[in-house]
Specification:
Elements lengths: L3 E7 L8 H14 L4 E5 L10 H11 L4 E4 L14 H4 L7 H17 L6 E3 L7 H9 L4 E4 L2 E4 L4 E4 L2 E2 L9 H24 L3 E7 L6 H16 L3 E3 L10 E3 L2
Helix pairs in contact: 4-5, 6-7
């Protein structure tokens, strides 16, 4: 089976006001390439729910080829936890019961916005074992984390590492520019390597990435290169177990 390409977009709920026009531009560029987006939707933030304009755009995109995924609840750090759970990811360390309660709140909030999905994407791609179990128990079809895609209907884990632009170190000036160029080259090279091995190429774009023209050019150039390798574009919801996988159940 040929490689598959999945591109996701996150962070629009609490992004700056200029994020939506940039997201529209990215979606338009991907449409020209026949590549759908999976929108990772965070139903709440410290500033409130997503704007009516954003919700209208998401609904419109979901009526087409795009899909939605629940992306946690509000990503607010828990002051009771040392360092704040939000620094590691909202669901990175939760036990099953706590994860289940937070998932229930998140689904209720998403439904209140008139949206729904059977796909859960862990914030920062970090999901504790308890979170994976809670997601399964709540009837989701899949859980996305850093290492792959848990397909509960098939009882398998599609091993596919999430690719993105996060930098581990805080740097500035020339060092930052060199690190940024290196990260762009690495994402491109990793994606092409995975495509040539007929794997699942997962490119995660955040709203803040859209403010950096080099990152947008890298995403589009990488998509072109992966498609040239024969990859099939898809959403997460369209993935199945017909790819290299590890049995988990």
């Amino acid at each position: 089976m040929p490689a598959r390409l999945v591109v996701s977009l996150s962070g629009l709920t609490d992004a700056r006001s200029d994020a939506l026009p940039r997201a529209r531009a990215l979606a338009d560029d991907l449409d020209l390439r026949g590549v759908p987006l999976t929108h990772l939707v965070q139903p709440a933030s410290p500033d409130g729910p997503p704007s009516p304009e954003l919700l209208a755009w998401l609904r419109d995109r979901a009526r087409g080829a795009d899909e939605l995924a629940l992306h946690g609840y509000d990503h607010t750090p828990d002051p009771a936890r040392r360092g704040g759970v939000g620094r590691k990811g909202e669901f990175a360390a939760l036990p099953r019961h706590e994860a289940g309660l937070r998932l229930t709140a998140a689904r209720r909030a998403l439904t209140g916005l008139g949206l729904g999905t059977a796909v859960f994407a862990a914030p920062r791609w970090l999901a504790s074992p308890g979170t994976v179990e809670a997601v399964r128990e709540q009837g989701f079809r899949m859980c996305l984390d850093e290492g792959g895609v848990h397909l509960f209907d098939d009882g398998v884990l599609l091993r596919a590492r999430a690719l993105g632009f996060r930098l581990d170190a805080v740097v500035s000036g020339d060092e930052r520019r060199r690190a940024e160029a290196w990260r762009c080259r690495l994402l491109h090279a990793e994606a092409v390597r995975i495509a040539r091995r007929a794997g699942v190429v997962r490119i995660g774009v955040r709203a803040k990435d859209l403010r950096r023209p080099d990152r947008v050019r890298t995403v589009l150039g990488t998509v072109d290169a992966v498609l040239a390798e024969g990859a099939w574009p898809a959403t997460y919801a369209a993935l199945s177990a017909a790819a290299p996988a590890a049995r988990t159940a």
